[in-house]
Amino acid sequence: MSSHATPAGFDTRRRFVRVTGERANGFVEFDFAVGEPDLAVEMILTREAFAEFCARNAVEMLAPQAEPRDAADDWDWRLADATRTRFR
């Protein structure tokens, strides 16, 4: 029996990118995922570096989120939200 617990259908060769924003200073905000598009990390790169990153990883581009997130949901937030939140 194998000690690896990789779920069936989880393909680590598949890479996903979802653009979440673009800044006026030339940076692209995006989510990057390996194997499963719903489990992603937030990243930010210059437009040029973003294009190179996508090419090197042969990413599948995902459509933008169709529905807005619920700001009242404590579990539905992004690290990027912290830049717009005032902490006490």
Strand content: 25-35%
* Share of residues in helices: 10-25%
Order of helices and strands: EEEHE
- Let me know the average pLDDT: 84
Poorly predicted spans: none
Q: So how many helices? A: 1
> How many β-strand runs?
4
Radius of gyration: 16 Å
Main sheet: strands, sense, barrel: 4 strands, mixed
Termini distance?
A: 52 Å
**What structural class do you assign from the helix and strand content?**
alpha+beta
Protein name: Phenol hydroxylase
InterPro entries: DmpK
Pfam families: Phenol_hyd_sub
Q: What does this protein structure show overall?
A:
12% of the residues lie in helices and 28% in strands. With 88 residues, the protein is of the alpha+beta class. The protein has a domain at 17-64. It has a 4-stranded mixed sheet with strand order 3-2-1-4. A hairpin with a 5-residue loop joins strand 2 and strand 3 (40-46). It is globular and about 45 Å long. The termini are far apart. The mean pLDDT is 84.
Q: Could you give a quick summary of the protein structure above?
A:
By secondary structure, this protein is of the alpha+beta class.
Distinctive features:
single chain; 88 residues; alpha+beta; four-stranded mixed beta sheet; 1 helix; 12% helix; Phenol hydroxylase; DmpK
Give the helices and strands, then pairings:
Layout lengths: L14 E8 L4 E8 L5 E7 H11 L2 E2 L27
Parallel strand pairs: 1-4
Antiparallel strand pairs: 1-2, 2-3
